Structures are given as structure tokens and as C-alpha cells.
Automatic annotation (TrEMBL):
Keyword set includes Manganese: yes
Listed name of the protein: Leucyl aminopeptidase family protein
The keyword Signal belongs to this UniProt entry's keyword annotation: no
InterPro entries with a match to the protein in the record: Leucine_aapep/pepB, Macro_dom-like, Peptidase_M17_C, Peptidase_M17_N_1
Gene3D superfamilies given in the database record: Leucine Aminopeptidase, subunit E, domain 1, Zn peptidases
Any one GO biological process: proteolysis
A single GO cellular-component term on record: cytoplasm
Gene Ontology MF: a single term: metalloaminopeptidase activity
Residue span(s) of domain Cytosol aminopeptidase: 311-318
UniProt similarity note: Belongs to the peptidase M17 family.
Length: 462
């Protein structure tokens, strides 16, 4: 369990002064002369994340400087000040100087996220520099968000041998138990009796102990309704349309949508938000076997729509469709799906942005604001209706993988909308950091969740 907590405020906390390049001379002149000279001797320039530790009497640390970077650098580097967690010596630190509310919050959250380490398979000590929560930030909220992201990262980083459908179910049960949520699971051939045919079809070729399942968790007795749906493909071989080996290397992260949903659910429950929450996770392994579904098969969905399979590697939308159809059978309220769904989304916006689709203009605006305010960049893509014909093959109601390679993220989103409740938003996320970045070590990543959390008060009131 990750601590991810701020240090208690006490007199021993060492001052940490953020300095921008254009304020460098003034900042150094305000220091005792020997400390200013020391900073200059170190070559400190105030670049983003740059650190200079300054000596005091008796060999003790007097304070440290940390670079804010230029406005251009701050626009390019999230969580720059959070790098102090891994660059400063062990001890307790307190930010000084004048940071606006957003920058102080980003620095504090980035510091917590910078301390995350995935240690399931090797010992590893994280940074030992701790931060006193800056004045004016919601310390408890930031700690809850950091722990939610740690859960998400842990789930994604765990390889498929130890994170199959059963283990994902166990993780969901653990979250439910901690917060008193109700949970039910339909597994294996019972999915057919319960009318989840596409979840069953995608997962039926897996070994019996990795059988497909639908996880259904509920929490909260009053307030507006929020339904979260997460793609839980615990490993994706591509099925009979097998992926090349290079494309399979990161497929342990294909349950990143489910991991993001569980992390977000943990945050919502931890914050005690006044809403009625439902979490639906279709958990499967898209395996290759004698019982695998095939290209050319036509599957009947829970909603009754038929789907022609033109690529078994477009399986995520199939399992999500049955879960979304279940949500649409009742009062789902606002429904949001998270999925590592298409490579086309990465081509469109790259790995750092979380693209989302919604017809709700108010929700779209609130998500954009939430992304900016909480260092969680998102970008709206359209449910472009003229492309509906691209997912209509003629032989069946829908095509799971339209030919041509154009607009793949949009056509996947349009496919899902055919099954979803009326008020619907879909995130097509990458859920992965390919290399180390401030606050985001290489590996699993939460994307879009903080933006949605910030948007909820406005979104659920409308």
C-alpha cells in the first residue's frame, strides 16, 4: 500500500523556494550573500525542476531552490515542481514564495505522484523528501487522488500472469469492501444465461481459471446517478487476428480502462461524494484457442443488435457494448466509459492527451476546465454522424472493424454509442507512460479521471 501522504507541518521543515528564470536575480539577491553566491556557483538558472541545495551554519541545509521554468517551459512540463520529491535530500520541505492556487495544487499533487514506485517484483525505495501541504490546497483530496492513481498504476503495471479476470475481480472486491459497496459478478457460461453474449464470446477461449466475467459494483444511496464502465481486457493477443509480437508487449495494459475506473471509483467513495455510483467492468482475456471467436462470425449482443466480426483484435468495443447495454436498461444517469480502445486515438492526439466523446456541450466544457485545473489534459473528438454508415456492414447491424483505416477512434465511439444510455461520454485513453516524466514514471497511468472528477459537480447538476 502506498503512503502518498503529506508531512505534518512542524518547525523543522526546510524552506523550498520556487524560482523562475526571469526572477532569478531578485531571488538570489534576497538570500544571504553566501547562499546566493553558492547558487550561482552551482549554475542554478531556475529551469523547470532544477534544484539547488544551499548550505547553512554547521554544515546544515539552510534551504533549497527549485526551478519553476519559463512560462513556455511550464506549459510544456507538468508537475515540474513535483520533481523535488526525487531530487531533494531526505527530510521535510515547505514551499515558500507566491504560487497561484493552480500551481500550488499541481506542485503538491505532482510531489505525491513523483513518490510512486511499483515494487511488487523488486525491492525499491522511493524518494524520501517529504512535503508539507502548501497553504490553501485541499491536502486530503490530493492524497485521495494520489492513492487512487497508485491503485490504477499498480493494476496496469502488474503483468497478465498475475492480473487476469479473476485478479481484476479480486481488486474490485477489495475496493468495494473498503468502502462498503455492493458487488456482484457473473462468470463463465453463466454470462450466456444472463444475456452477456459478446463478453462471453470474446473471453471464452481463455483457460477456465481465466474465464470471462462481468463485474457490477454499486455504492451510495442518494443523489444523482453516475455509471462508470471500464474495459477490462486483461491481455489482448489480438485473438485469431493475432498481433505482431512488438504490439503485444504492452498488452497487459489493455485493462487500463478498468483500472482507471476502479481508481476513480475509489476516489469518489473516499471523498464521500453525494451520488449513486455504479461501476461495470467486463473482464476478459482475448486468447487464442479452439473456441476463439472468428473473423466473419456474427455475434448477437445483449441489446439484440448483431455485429459482424471483421477483426478479432477489435474486441474491446464488443465487451463494452454488453456492459453499456446493461447500464441503458435502467436509470444510468451520466454514463462514462474508459477504454484503451484504439491506436487511431494515439495517432490523432498522441499518448499524453485523453480524447473524449460526448454530445453534452456542458459536460464537454466542464471536462476541458477540469483537465486544465487538475493537470489532466483532455481533448474532445466528435461523434461525427456522417461516419455512422462506416460501421454498418449490410450483413449485420454493425461492423466491429470497418475497413479503410480512417477515423478509427470516431467509428469505435459511434459503435459504443449505439448501446449506451442517452447521456454518455467515452474516453479512449492510452493509460501508459512510455518513459519517465515528472510525476509519471514509466508504466501505467491514470488519464481523464481527475478531469471528470472536477467536472462532476457541474455535470451531475445539469
Amino acid at each position: 500500500m502506498h503512503a502518498l501522504a503529506f508531512a505534518p507541518d512542524d518547525a523543522s521543515a526546510m524552506p523550498l523556494l520556487p524560482v523562475a528564470p526571469d526572477g532569478l536575480d531578485a531571488a538570489l539577491q534576497a538570500l544571504p550573500p553566501e547562499q546566493g553566491a553558492w547558487a550561482r556557483a552551482l549554475g542554478f538558472k531556475g529551469n523547470a525542476g532544477e534544484v539547488a541545495v544551499l548550505p547553512g551554519e554547521g554544515g546544515r541545509i539552510a534551504r533549497a531552490l527549485i526551478g519553476r521554468g519559463s512560462p513556455e517551459a511550464r506549459a510544456r512540463t507538468r508537475f515540474a515542481l513535483g520533481q523535488g520529491a526525487s531530487k531533494l535530500p531526505e527530510g521535510t520541505w515547505r514551499l515558500e514564495g507566491s504560487l497561484d492556487e493552480r500551481e500550488a495544487r499541481e506542485a503538491a499533487l505532482g510531489w505525491l505522484l513523483e513518490t510512486y514506485r511499483f515494487t511488487r517484483y523488486r525491492d525499491g525505495n522511493g524518494p524520501k523528501a517529504r512535503l508539507v501541504a502548501p497553504e490553501g490546497v485541499e491536502a486530503e483530496r490530493l492524497e485521495i487522488l494520489a492513492r487512487a492513481e497508485a491503485l490504477t498504476r499498480d493494476l496496469i503495471n502488474t503483468p497478465a500472469a498475475d492480473m487476469g479476470p479473476a485478479e481484476l475481480e479480486a481488486a474490485a472486491r477489495g475496493v468495494a469492501e473498503r468502502f462498503g459497496a455492493q458487488i456482484g459478478v457473473v462468470t463463465g457460461d453463466d454470462l450466456l444465461d444472463a444475456n452477456f453474449p459478446m463478453i462471453h464470446a470474446v473471453g471464452r477461449a481463455a483457460a477456465p481459471h481465466r474465464a470471462p466475467r462481468l463485474i457490477d459494483m454499486t455504492w451510495g444511496g442518494e443523489g444523482p446517478r453516475l455509471t462508470l464502465v471500464g474495459k477490462g481486457v486483461c491481455f489482448d493477443t489480438g485473438g485469431l487476428d493475432i498481433k505482431p509480437s512488438a504490439s503485444m508487449l504492452t498488452m497487459k495494459k489493455d485493462m487500463g480502462g478498468a483500472a482507471n475506473v476502479l481508481g476513480l471509483a475509489q476516489a469518489i467513495m473516499g471523498l464521500g461524494l453525494p451520488l449513486r455510483l455504479r461501476v461495470l467492468i467486463p473482464a476478459v482475456e482475448n486468447a487464442i484457442g479452439s473456441d476463439a471467436f472468428r473473423p466473419g462470425d456474427i455475434l448477437r449482443s445483449r441489446k439484440g443488435l448483431t455485429v459482424e466480426i471483421n477483426n478479432t483484435d477489435a474486441e474491446g468495443r464488443l465487451v463494452l457494448a454488453d456492459a453499456l447495454a446493461l447500464a441503458a436498461e435502467g436509470d444510468a444517469g451520466l454514463t462514462v466509459s474508459f477504454a484503451t480502445l484504439t491506436g487511431a486515438a494515439r495517432v490523432a492526439v498522441g499518448p499524453d492527451l485523453a480524447p473524449f466523446f460526448t454530445d453534452d456541450e456542458g459536460l464537454a466544457a466542464a471536462l476541458a476546465r477540469g483537465g486544465r485545473d487538475w493537470a489532466d489534459p483532455v481533448w474532445r473528438l466528435p461523434f461525427h454522424q456522417p461516419y455512422e454508415s462506416m460501421i454498418e456492414p449490410g450483413i449485420a447491424d454493425l461492423d466491429n472493424a470497418p475497413a479503410g483505416g480512417m477515423a478509427g477512434a470516431i467509428t469505435a465511439a459511434l459503435f459504443l454509442r449505439r448501446f449506451a444510455p442517452p447521456r454518455y461520454c467515452h474516453f479512449d485513453i492510452f493509460a501508459w507512460s512510455a518513459s519517465h516524466a515528472p510525476g509519471r514514471p514509466k508504466g501505467g497511468l491514470m488519464q481523464g479521471a481527475r478531469a471528470l472528477l472536477a467536472a462532476l459537480p457541474e455535470a451531475l447538476d445539469s
